[in-house]
Amino acid sequence: MTHPAPDRPVAGDWLALRAPADAEAREDTLPLIERLVRHWAQLSPGVGEDDPVVVVDLGAGTGANREWLAAHLPGPQRWILLDHDRDLLEQAVASAREDAADVVPVLAGVEQLGRVLEEHPARRRLVTCSALLDLLSREQVQELARVLARNGVPALFALTVDGEVHLDPPHHLDAPVLGAFEDHQHREELAGTDAVRLADAALREEGMDVEVVPTPWWVNDQPWSQPLLRRFLADRADAAVEHRPDLTAEAHAWLRTRLVDCARHKLRATVGHADVLGLPRVS
Ligand SMILES: C[S@@+](CC[C@H](N)C(=O)[O-])C[C@H]1O[C@@H](n2cnc3c(N)ncnc32)[C@H](O)[C@@H]1O
Predict the structure, then answer these.
(1) pTM over 0.90
(2) Where are the alpha helices (DSSP H) in 70-220?
(3) Cα 214 to ligand 1 centroid, rounded to whole Å
């Protein structure tokens, strides 16, 4: 069987830099997890504590979603880690094994979700992802909703960027550079910063109950904020230049100024994200 290869691989060190900001942001998602657990209890009141929950993590990367979420889900769990990037998946599996977690790696694209669910039946299941939806095409987001509804499986799509970025103090080049970055995220029919709205609409259209909560990053002067901000700014400038070569001089000037702000501990950033919970209706 041939496996897909990512045409724009995600850098593993970026995933490590963002993990502490994600973990802080995810405190806001705890009520969604409580709601999910109540849904399982209502759906399968007879299922014992020893019966493992099966969790499919789409776009698992190096496994940060499992590392955070496993501690917030009840009882034994089997994690199916799916990613189309072999290197990242190997890191996720190695770290899961260190935690003695029950994991099954799947080297595949998200379009394999239907097959994965067929191969892993269970009374309590969840399909989750973090920081993935904006990287999918609009059609892929809609197809995910169809597969989830057809299989009656809840979804927790965590930490999708929503396009809200506020840098403090402001700079007159924030708008053009960040705007070009956002346009870059929408290239080739990608869902980009529409992903939360698209997922919400697609799940509702499939008859699921949906709740969306904001899970923004608040980056001020935490111990991890400097390297994260530096990389965040550089990635935005690079993507802006790739999308709008005519903005090269402005993007480079913006990056230089912002890196100085950062080094002086003057820069604060709020980066909008949202979590989406989709629950099949219980009749
Ligand atoms: C931004 S990273 C997030 C990784 C991880 N969930 C986290 O929160 O650290 C997105 C991940 O999704 C994977 N990915 C992107 N598009 C995918 C697709 N169509 N099918 C499978 N994996 C995909 C990438 O390889 C990458 O590991």
Answers:
(1) yes
(2) 86-98, 113-119, 138-151, 174-185, 195-205
(3) 20
